[in-house]
Design goal:
Layout (H helix, E strand, L loop, with lengths): L4 H12 L4 E5 L2 E4 H18 L4 E6 L3 H12 L3 E6 L4 H11 L3 E3 L5 H7 L4 E3 L21 E7 L7 E6 H15 L6 E4 L8 H9 L4 E4 L3 H5 L1 H7 L4 E4 L2 H8 L13 E4 L6 H10 L4 E6 L9 E5 L16 E2 L3 E7 L2 E3 L2 E8 L16 E4 L3 E13 L2 E7 L3 E4 L2 E4 H11 L4 E6 L2 E6 L7 H9 L10 E4 L13 H15 L1
Parallel strand pairs: 3-4, 3-5, 5-6, 9-10, 11-12, 12-13, 25-26
Antiparallel strand pairs: 1-2, 7-8, 13-14, 14-15, 16-17, 16-18, 18-20, 19-20, 20-21, 22-23, 24-25
Helix pairs in contact: 1-2, 2-3
Length: 494
């Protein structure tokens, strides 16, 4: 088969730096030689069970997940990354929608999943082997897709984004040429494996000779500044709101960030106040801001941030930068292309193959004879001094702490619970649900129900009963009025 770029890089690095630590997982080190042997061995086991599989990886940020991802690619298969902390009902939906025929999970969970899926093949960490293996890969056909990653869907169901090997290759090449991760650099992993930003962590590190160190414990997640210090992190990949977490724990200090050389931000708007607080304690740090939806393979723009970017007070956030090579952006405003403002339309090598359910592609993925496939993001930006700045969404989708959330999915889940007249909004990184039913609902009971159906980060922070929904003069829901109502009610609760 034509070997993927990421696999080629792993082979090269493993031969060049066999004793360099690839993954530091729970105080145990795995060298590149060991890691490659594990990948080769699991790949052979996968191929023996079923060729060109769809593999559901139900995992955490650990060696089993990393080996399984590369092993899936090496076997010619497609993988579906699923965080083990998602609600069981959601995990089952994703496995069924993805039509996975192999499941990889922790051995503690295998009996549970075998009862649910008795006809599927299973692998656990017990199947990992570091024995010497043949470095040659037999030529064979491979699946076009590298992975299918599920995001929040407006219909109330998780939506599968299909990312090809070609798209992943293009992105990993860009990561390699721009991250500048050197042999032995300690690189963090904060995002869960079902969050597409983790692709930047995992492939950006393991295809460059760095050492991947996941933040796994509750303590490490609550105090990321101390994690950076204790693990001597050199390269940090994260959503901008992680800086707020560090600040809130009084950990944004020179001592904690001493080892840090670079930060790659993606997933939400990077605020100038966040950058300023970093530069105050570490002047020589390299900061890259990036933008991109899951449908464009993690990120498709980049900007090197410097002091002068903080001087212009017109915008509170940092520019999203320029498209990476091989990608192109156009702005669509009122059905016409504009150079000043509009919805971001993305073309190029990293555009996904669409959604797993082709019906969901309507109004999002289109084909142009000149440009090939393009994607309408729903992200609206304005241009100032030739720089693009994020303004708002044109639909009912939001991002909170980097997680993409369809508010309609939350509303749909609440309707299934039994609330008939409901609407959900987001402001100030909080989710607020309003309802006008005569019956009064108990928030605690609702939370229990939601935890079994949607991820924790999608559960509303507040639930308010109001007499009626405020409307505009055009008889549309008045979101601004709902925000004001929410502010008043939240202040009363405080």
């Amino acid at each position: 088969m034509k070997t993927d770029y990421s696999l080629k890089k792993l082979f090269q690095i493993s031969k060049k730096f066999p004793s360099t630590v690839a993954v530091r997982d729970s105080k145990k080190d795995y060298t590149y030689k060991t890691f490659l042997n594990m990948v080769l061995n699991i790949s052979k086991k996968i191929s023996f069970k079923r060729k060109n599989s769809i593999i559901a990886i139900i995992g955490e940020k650990n060696i089993l997940s990393y080996v399984s991802m590369f092993g899936a690619l090496m076997s010619g298969s497609t993988y579906i990354p699923i965080s083990s902390n998602l609600p069981i009902k959601r995990i089952i939906k994703i496995i069924n929608k993805g039509k996975a025929n192999i499941i990889i999970c922790n051995s503690e969970k295998i009996d549970f999943y075998k009862k649910l899926f008795p006809k599927k093949f299973f692998f656990t960490e017990k199947n990992l082997s570091a024995k010497e293996s043949d470095y040659k890969i037999a030529k064979k056909k491979v699946n076009k897709l590298a992975y299918i990653i599920f995001t929040s869907g407006s219909t109330g169901e998780p939506k599968g984004v299909c990312v090809s090997r070609e798209s992943l290759d293009h992105y990993v090449k860009w990561l390699n040429s721009n991250f500048n991760i050197k042999k032995g650099y300690n690189c963090s992993q904060f995002p869960e494996i079902s969050f597409d930003l983790s692709v930047a962590d995992i492939y950006g590190t393991l295809c460059s000779g760095g050492t991947l160190i996941p933040a796994r414990t509750a303590y490490e997640k609550l105090f990321p500044g101390r994690f950076i210090k204790n693990k001597k992190i050199n390269f940090l990949v994260c959503v901008p709101s992680l800086i707020d977490v560090i600040k809130s724990s009084s950990d944004l200090t020179k001592k904690n960030l001493k080892s840090l050389k670079s930060i790659f931000f993606c997933g939400e708007a990077l605020l100038k106040s966040q950058v300023e607080s970093i530069f105050k304690i570490k002047k020589d740090i390299r900061i890259i801001n990036a933008y991109g939806p899951t449908e464009a393979t993690v990120s498709c723009t980049h900007k090197e941030v410097c002091y002068k970017d903080l001087k212009d007070k017109k915008f509170h956030s940092i520019s999203i930068g320029v498209p990476i090579p091989g990608m192109e952006i156009k702005l669509l405003d009122n059905q016409k292309f504009s150079k000043k403002k509009g919805e971001i339309i993305i073309y190029g090598s990293q555009i996904a193959e669409g959604y797993l359910n082709k019906k969901e592609n309507r109004n999002k993925f289109f084909y142009s004879k000149k440009k090939g496939f393009y994607y309408k993001t729903g992200d609206y930006v304005v241009v100032h001094k030739n720089e693009m700045y994020f303004k708002n969404r044109i639909d009912n989708q939001v991002k909170i702490k980097g997680h993409r959330i369809e508010l309609d999915e939350i509303t749909s889940s609440l309707i299934k619970y039994g609330i008939k007249k409901i609407h959900t909004i987001a402001f100030d990184n909080k989710i607020v649900a309003f309802y006008t039913d005569k019956k009064k609902f108990d928030k605690k009971s609702i939370d229990v129900y939601l935890r079994n159906n949607i991820p924790e980060y999608m559960i509303p922070n507040y639930l308010f009963k109001i007499k009626k929904f405020p409307l505009t003069q055009n008889i549309k829901l008045n979101i601004n009025s709902l925000i004001q109502i929410a502010k008043k009610k939240i202040n009363v609760q405080r």
